Amino acid sequence: MCLGALPARWGATGFFPKLTYRELTLTPLTGTLPASWAQNGSLPSLESIWLGDTKLSGNLPGEWGSQTAFRQLAYLNLGNTQTMSSITGNMLQLMLWAH
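The structure corresponding to this sequence follows.
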C-alpha cells in the first residue's frame, strides 16, 4: 500500500521500464501529482494509471501534457480526487494522438 505522497523517484528514467498498469485507487494518497513522472523516458510502457478515490490535490502538472510524456498512456483515472485542473491543450493533443 502506498501511503502519503506519490514518490517522485518513480519517475526516474529506468525505475519502472516495463510497468504498464498502476492501480492506486482507494489508497490514502495525498499531495500532488509528480511532474517527474512525465520526464522524457520515464514510465515508457505505462498504458493505464488509476488514482481515483484518493486525497490527491493540486493541478495536473503541465509536464504531463508533453508530447514525450506517457507515450503509451491510454487511460488516466483521477475521479473523485481533489485534483483541480483543466486539461491543457498539450494534454488534449496527447489524448487525441493516443486514440
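The beta strands are 21-23, 30-31, 48-50, 55-58, 75-77, 82-83.
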